[in-house]
Design a protein that fits this description.
By secondary structure, this protein is mainly alpha-helical. The chain folds into two domains: 94 residues, Multidrug-efflux Transporter Regulator, Chain: A, Domain 2, CATH 1.10.1660.10; 42 residues, no CATH class. It contains six helices and four strands. It starts with a helix and ends with a helix.
Length: 141
């Protein structure tokens, strides 16, 4: 019974989408120990969470998705770290556009000119997450 209540509480916690998560939150969400998260940072160059002013790691939803993928490769599909690195490198090469394109978009609702670098998909994904989060906030007001 206790496990069911814990699972329901965890699901409620995850229903509130945040922009950034601490290492302890990510550890609970992914069921990966904190020292393993730190170690994987040294092994996988794609995994590079930002740090706040205090020097603490802050993970985005994109980082969490990457961690879950790495966990699947290593623990479920039984890849070695080197094998998982190769898969992630191949995946990253497939995502890179052939040429770098920069485009300026005007947003009349804010009268701000934003430069979007389409050659960096992670920036675009982060901006989309922020946009979705702000839309969600607006519905709550």
């Amino acid at each position: 019974m206790f496990l069911t209540q814990f699972f329901i509480k965890s699901m409620r916690d995850l229903s509130i989408k945040k922009l950034y998560y601490s290492i302890s939150e990510v550890s609970k969400i992914t069921d990966i120990e904190q020292y393993v998260l730190r170690y994987w940072e040294t092994e996988f160059e794609q995994l590079n969470p930002q740090k706040n002013r205090a020097g603490n790691r802050i993970y985005t939803n994109k980082d969490i998705r990457l961690l879950l993928y790495i966990k699947e490769l290593l623990r479920e599909k039984k890849y070695t770290i080197e094998g998982a690195k190769k898969i992630l490198e191949d995946y990253e090469q497939d995502k890179k556009p052939a040429i770098e394109i920069k485009e300026k978009k005007s947003h009349p609702e804010t009268d701000i000119l934003v430069e979007v670098d389409k050659s960096n998909p992670s920036v675009k994904e982060d901006l989309e997450e922020i946009k979705d989060f702000l839309k969600h906030l607006l519905t709550k007001l």
